[in-house]
Amino acid sequence: MLQSAGTTTVEALVKDTTTQTFVKDVIEESKRQPVLVDFWAEWCGPCKQLTPVLEKAVKAAKGKVKLVKMDIDKHPAIPGQMGIQSIPAVIAFVNGQPADGFMGALPESQVVAFLERLTKDRIGGEAKDLLEAADAALAAGDATGAADIYAQILAEDSSNVPALAGLVRCYVQTGALDKARQTLTMVPSAKQSDAAVAAARAALELAEQAKTVGPIGELEQKVAANPVDHQARFDLALALNGKGRRLDALEHLLAIVKRDRKWNDDAARKQLVQFFDAWGPTDEATIEGRKRLSSILFA
Questions:
Q1: Which residues in 253-283 are b (16+ Cβ under 10 Å) and which e?
Q2: Residue 204 is part of a domain; what is its CATH number?
Q3: Using one digit for the tens of pLDDT, what is the confidence trace for 204-229?
Q4: Are residues 99 and 30 both part of a single domain?
Q5: pTM more than 0.70
């Protein structure tokens, strides 16, 4: 174990990687202990806030996890293939595969909690606040209950961005797309690029796309009759996601990527990226999707 706080320890726990060394630094190293990949860029202000927090937390973990940093401007291939569009983005690799992640400059307490969950160490048992309770309800599929809690938060603070973003997602899940669009307009202009808002906007866009494709039954028949009808399979994925069948949608897009990665200007992989944005980095379908996409891309 790496216990000391000397230069050697710091260099061993935190390092930069490149496209050429990514497999060695991340894929192979994560078979020994979890590896965090910090996707960043020099121009990114929030990245400069997050990186010192990550380094401090990783060093405090005393060798239970490592941090690898990748400048997406100097090395765009791998973040592009993995669907990293917003930074800072942190993806945790375990046993050679993406296992968890988050976007945005989280405070130190949340970064520490993330590492505790990742390394299976003690996690703080403090009670959930209203926002956490609403997020949990939404993740469990109780959009109505979550919306009620988000509304309570907004009654006290009408500019609470996470609550506004959560409420948008509630409306999307219940099919109230007009209300979702109206709620998005309530987000302050300075916060329009916030990760939670971007995810909510992506979810709304996907729901609107799903309304433009045919019925699921007809699309399934087309795919069954002609498995290489990539457009029908692509439309089916959109329709399935619109009904909340994320893993089924994932299967169809991954099938296109596997059979013909460059079809329609890489449309299937790009659509997967939008799915990941909308579902969020910790969603089961996002984790599974990134893992399987990584297996295809790096095979």
A1: bbbbbeeeeebeebbbbebbbbbbbbbbbeb
A2: 1.25.40.10
A3: 999 998 888 889 999 999 999 999 99
A4: yes
A5: no
